[in-house]
Design a protein that fits this description.
With 490 residues, the protein is mainly β. It is 11% helix and 48% strand.
């Protein structure tokens, strides 16, 4: 039993050895044309004729490549033979081929390890086919149309061609910058380096054909250089220039000036905010945004201007503490930083003291005489828009003569204000309208006034008022006074 098993093993090994020897043995080919792969008509076929024949017998060509063990070369051969250069030449005696396709009895066959042993050089076409960075020579004997694989295979790894595109070419601080090396050819690995304006290397990034893009950003303005490198499959670096530059925009510099600081008595008066002193190191100012905040930090007004002189005039109708924020933008869209020179906090106060002048018509002392009066004085806010104090004095002139006399009057009043309406009361003094009559006497008066604002420009006002003066300690009928008038506060 053991001897039978050993005999079987010996026979198998002998068959394998014989097969290997038959494959390794070189077949000397002395004649060509007996077993043609394609049917050729005529004496000397051209390259165009051969292309057409191989197209017609494409199925047989595929069978032959599969039998030869080079199925992967079939499609490149069929595709590239249409455009490749067919070299018309001869091969010397002794030229060898790993395999050759031919037909016998209309069946595709493969002969291996062929050596041309004819008496003369063999006329052939040579077609070069590239596959996976290798160049294969296919030998087509002219008068038979067989297909043979050349013995020499040449590496065809091309040099890498580096391509570097950086976008955008001009950007602002912290804007994303895209580095794209997807246009690089024949590269195994790629590298991009970044340098500042002084030539100092800032970063290095490794890329691959599968991942050829990278995004970065810069936190400082200036000019930055990018240098790309590419290495092919053999480790040889590309030699073509592969550089790019990016300019990171310098932001504009904001400067702010105001027409008052502090802004005393500026309620109702225009305050100018001026950013015309702002500048941009590498461009120009194209927009200015003013933001006005109240004491709690709420934005209560905004002004956006896109033309010089970069100013905003604002009238405040209420006293208080305010903050003005100013931001300038350049032609690249960069904005100034929120620095102190462009953020100012200031107080706007309301005017509290006014001089007054006014006049009107009145009836004095129970007479039928009509008086015209003129007064001057002062007006002061105790609590703005709520309580005020007035002090005024002047004279009244009768429109009739004797017995009526010029009258002097003065008063001090406290007034309550209810929007445009006001009501006041206080004490005053007045002289006699008829000095020769003891019933008409100089003395104290209880004064009442009421009226309303005709106009209010904050720094000046106009009031229409009605007045009644009741005498204290004197005859009412002979010493009361009533009138209507207008006064101007400034």
């Amino acid at each position: 039993m053991k001897m039978r098993k050993s005999a079987v093993i010996f026979i198998v090994m002998a068959l394998v050895a014989f097969t290997m020897m038959s494959y390794a043995q070189t077949t000397k080919l002395k004649r060509i044309g007996l077993y043609t792969f394609v049917e050729i008509k005529g004496q000397v076929p051209t390259a165009e004729v051969m292309k057409g024949l191989f197209e017609r017998y494409a199925a047989d060509v595929k069978i032959g490549f599969d039998m030869a063990g080079n199925s992967e070369l079939y499609e490149p051969f069929m595709e590239q033979m249409k455009t490749a250069e067919w070299t018309d030449t001869t091969l010397p005696i002794g030229e060898t081929f790993p395999w050759m396709l031919f037909k016998s009895r209309d069946q595709v066959k493969v002969a291996r390890n062929i050596e041309w042993a004819g008496k003369e050089p063999l006329p052939v076409f040579i077609v070069q086919v590239t596959k996976d960075w290798k160049i294969y020579d296919f030998i087509i004997p002219k008068n038979c149309g067989n297909i043979a694989l050349g013995a020499k295979v040449v590496d065809a790894i091309p040099p890498a061609v580096c391509s570097l595109v950086v976008t955008p070419e001009r950007a602002n601080v912290n804007d994303p910058i895209t580095v794209d090396m997807s246009g690089t050819q024949y590269a195994k690995t790629m590298t991009v380096e970044i340098y500042d304006a002084q030539g100092q290397k800032l970063a290095t990034q490794e890329l691959t054909p599968q991942s050829p893009k990278w995004q970065t950003k810069f936190d400082k303005p200036g000019e930055y250089s990018f240098k790309g490198a590419a290495v092919n499959m053999e480790g040889i670096a590309a030699t073509n220039p592969c550089t790019a530059k990016v300019a990171i925009n310098f932001p504009p510099i904001c400067k702010l000036w105001t027409s008052c600081m502090p802004c005393e008595d500026y309620v109702g008066r225009p305050i100018t905010f001026d950013a015309s002193g702002s500048s941009d190191p590498d461009g120009q100012i194209v927009k200015v945004v003013f933001e006005l905040l109240d004491s709690e930090g709420n934005v209560i007004d905004t002004c956006v201007t896109t033309r010089t002189p970069w100013t905003w005039e604002k009238v405040f109708t209420k006293a208080g503490t305010y903050t003005i924020n100013t931001t300038v933008f350049d032609n690249d869209g960069a904005q100034s930083s929120a620095s102190d020179p462009c953020r100012l906090t200031f107080e706007v106060t309301q005017k509290k003291l006014f001089w007054t002048v006014g006049g009107g018509l009145g009836i004095y002392g129970g007479s039928s005489a009509l008086y015209g009066f003129l007064r001057g004085g002062m007006f002061a806010w105790i609590t703005p828009d709520k309580w005020s104090f007035t002090l005024s004095g002047g004279g009244g002139i009768p429109f009739k003569g004797d017995p009526w006399n010029i009258v002097f009057m003065a008063e001090a009043l406290v007034n309550g204000h209810f929007q445009s309406f006001f009501l006041g009361t206080g004490l005053g003094v007045s002289s006699a309208t008829q000095p020769k009559d003891e019933n008409h006497a100089f003395g104290l008066d209880l004064v009442g006034q009421t009226g309303f604002l005709v106009f209010d420009k904050w720094t000046s006002k106009g009031q229409l008022f009605f007045e009644f003066r009741a005498p204290l300690g004197r005859s009412f009928n002979h010493n009361y006074k009533a009138g209507v008038g207008f006064r101007f506060l400034f």
